[in-house]
What we know:
This is Nuclear receptor subfamily 2, group F, member 6. By secondary structure, the chain is mostly helical.
Amino acid sequence: GLHAAPMAAERAVAFMDQVRAFQEQVDKLGRLQVDSAEYGCLKAIALFTPDACGLSDPAHVESLQEKAQVALTEYVRAQYPSQPQRFGRLLLRLPALRAVPASLISQLFFMRLVGKTPIETLIRDMLLSGSTFNWPYGSGQ
């Protein structure tokens, strides 16, 4: 997908720097050996951001984020009792991951699927269409 959109040399260098920084964050999560439950809690903590623009009930979103943090705390204590620092290490990964530009994620993972259409536009259109989306794959995939 990267070859579909040629870039100027300086833009390519900046892009590769962003990719390298993103890869470092992924590597750090890999070294922590994040399991699926931890990953799910981290996703919820990251997604339930009460500071997001346009929220009608930020207090409710904050409550959901706190519940995800409590769930992660309890899970880590039960599953990894010999790693008391694990919860903190997991949470410390979030700011760096949030700093990864959405445009980088779109270019790396969605460019071949949606072309130059911003992924936010695609998601918004899917939500506003009011109908179910039929993926081009079979139901077993």
